[in-house]
Structures are given as structure tokens and as C-alpha cells.
Amino acid sequence: MAERWDNGEVSLVTQQVESPYLRFDRADWAALASRAPLPLTEADISRIRGIGDQISLREVDEIYRPLSALLNLHAHASHYLHDVRGMFLRDATLRTPYVIGIAGSVAVGKSTVARLLVELLARWPDTPRVQLLPTDGFLYSNAELERRGLSMRKGFPESYNRLALLRFLSQVKAGAPRVEAPSYSHLRYDIQPDQVTAVTQPDILIVEGLNVLQAARTTGGVAEELVVSDFFDFSIYIDAAEPDIREWYKSRFLALRETAFTKAESYFHRYANMSDQDATAYALSVWDQVNSPNLRENIRPTRLRASLVLQKGADHLVEKIYLRKT
Fold first, then answer.
1. Domain ranges within the chain, ordered by starting residue
2. What is the bridge-based pairing of β-strands 3-5 and 204-208?
3. Domain 3-324 CATH superfamily
4. Does the predicted model carry a pTM greater than 0.70?
5. What angle separates helix 110-121 from helix 65-89, to the nearest 10 degrees?
6. What pLDDT digit, counting tens, does each position of 289-305 carry?
């Protein structure tokens, strides 16, 4: 039988074509955890966990510790290749950061995974300096989105300053000692013009965002442009069935009414006193009108471009792992 991936939408294995991915069930992957003796504590998990994420210490041990070991191997091999190449070329250029991209839908848990990997990868002795860059800072400001008629397309590829993000990553990969990125406030739901995020030659840089695996436009099969993923050494896609993500988005919105939305400076403060019924209706309308189209048109089609896919079940736990063979 052909195995199908995520509601049967994409076939990973067919009778005619061998899959480019190695497939691991949860138990098989968890068996690799002994190769990554870098445990976190419950306090670490509480600090990292995002609203709505059901991540536990067991999930970290079984899924993310093995992943950190795999990523450490890749980063170590990349740094070794840089060193021996430098000796061969008699080039003393400093190492540049190993860049990992993390993509996936709104509410699928990208930010939590990114924060977990920062904690775990920094525990390895040869990659102590790990930084995280969410790409939200490269969204156009709300005023600019309104000027461009994109207010209801926030999060879609065209709502980002793509050239600024490409310049940023180009400088990072060129080995610049300090590269500044714009900062974004989820509380205010807008760019913070007076703040920046500085990347200062880390061993590993994790770049997290909705559309970071977008492919280049092509003419006659030839790419016309650079894209963000051209700067990635490894990429991860966080996957789940859309009905599950929709439910997680709704639950997160309801939870935020009692936390972030209660603050007067919150962009969403006007929703804090909504009834459960009205809040649920509003959250689902935003999902159906904005997040679902973005997922279907732009985000999910990039899944097969990832080096590794973490496929979650309805309980937010990773059920399967797909690792590209090459």
C-alpha cells in the first residue's frame, strides 16, 4: 500500500517512486535519545512552552533530544568541512553560522520548537552560541500593509520585506560580526521601530517563520532570484492536519483573552471581554479567511522542500519524523 502524508494530500511513498525521505515512527526515533544525554528540566520546559502547546519533558526527551544530536552532527560536519577547505585554499576566513530554518503554519508550534532547539543545541560543547531569529521582524509595518492594501494578507509572502531579509541573511553568511534585524511585538501586533535584534556570529542561527521555505520563481525551469532558504544549511517543517491546527488556533485565541489581551497596550485588547461564543466565531473567521488560505496556498506547498518534517497528531505530540536521505 502507498503511504500517504497528512490527510492523503501528498504521497511520500508510491509503488512507482521511492520516497526521498527516511520515515521514523515515534518509538524508533525515541530510541535514539540515548545518543543525546543533554536533558532539560521541568523549569526549562515551563519557560519555553508557548500558550496552547502541550509539550512535556517526555516529548522533549523522545523527540527533540535526538533531533538536537542530529543537528549537532550536521553543524559539526559543516564546520569541519569549512576548516579543511580553508587549509586547502590557504584561506583563514572565519567560520560562518550554521543556519537552520523552521517553517509551518500559524499555531502549529514553530516558536516553541525553535526555543527548545536553542536550549538543547547550546548544551553541546562545540555549539555553545545559538541564536534565534523570528522573521516577524521583517513584516511590513501595519501602516505600510494598509498602504499596500495588504492588511488582510498579513503573514502571506507579499507582506514581508523579502529584500531586507535576504540582505540580512547574506550578511550573516558573509561572516559580519554584527547584523541587526527589525524587532516585532506580538503584543502590539506591529514592528517596533526603536528596537532591533542583533545577531553576533553565533555557532548556529535558527530562523523561524511561516514562509521561510518558499521556492524561487522560475523561467524555463531556471530560478530567477535568491530565496531565504538558499541560506539554510538545514530546514525543518512542523506539520499537522489542518483541522487540528484550526482547533489549536481557536484554543490559543481563547486563552490569550485571559492573558495578553487583558493588557491595555495589546492590539487585541478589544477582544478581551468577548463572550466565548463571539470569541470562537471571530477566531474561526480569521482562520478561514486568512490563515487557512495562507497555509494551503503558500506554507504547506513548501513542506517537501524541508530537510526534516515533524508530523504532529491531534494531541500536539509528534507521531512521525521524515528525514531527507541526502
1. 3-324
2. unpaired
3. P-loop containing nucleotide triphosphate hydrolases (3.40.50.300)
4. yes
5. 60
6. 999 999 999 999 999 99
